[in-house]
Amino acid sequence: MEKLYHIMDQEVSNLSVLFTKLHHYHWYVTGPNFFALHVKFEELYDEVNELYDEFAERLLTIGGSPSSSLKAYLEKATIKEATSTPAALDMVKAVRNDMQTIVDELKAAIPVAQDANDEATADLFIGTISSFEKTIWMLDFTLR
Description:
Oligomer: single chain
CATH class: Mainly Alpha
Number of helices: 5
Number of domains: 1
Structural class: mainly alpha
CATH architecture: Up-down Bundle
């Protein structure tokens, strides 16, 4: 179970960092795509906020302890915080790449959850993958 706890905590950290990044982009996006991206970033941070809480509560449910400080999140996350304000399409690329990182990690984590006989956690991973893959597809089409 320790491996599953570690994976879950890493994803709690990733979701926290992504949530903050999406807020940053929501507030600071500019340019001809402002209206669409401003709305989309808000939709995405709302979704990520729900997942952030769901992952943390699932980790608590199975006996783990999610990190709950900014310092810990930044140490454990595999995605990076936004430290600048890039152009709008670079924001889209960053969000797309962060989501792909999380998808890749969750795909690798499904067998870990299943080996621990934790189908509920595996299901959480699968649902998140499905949602993020659809968003990645939409972001890819935005970048064309």
